[in-house]
Amino acid sequence: MDAVRVELFGKDPKIQKAISVARNVSVTKAPVLVVGEAGIGKRTLARFIHENSSRAERPFQVVDCAQEAKQVENEILGWRDEETGRFNKGALEAANSGTVVFANIEGISDEFQKKLHKILMELPDYDIDVRIVATTTKNLSKLVGSGRFYRGLYTLVASNAINLTPLRERENDLEMLARFFAAEFTEGGNGQIEQSAMDKIISHYWTHNVHELKTVIESSMTNSETGILTEADLEIGEKRAVSMISDEDNEGIRLMSLKEAEKLLIKKALVHTSENRTQAAKILGVSIRTLRNKINEYRSDGSAYFVNLR
Question: Does an H or E element contain 218, and which?
Answer without folding.
Answer: helix 209-221
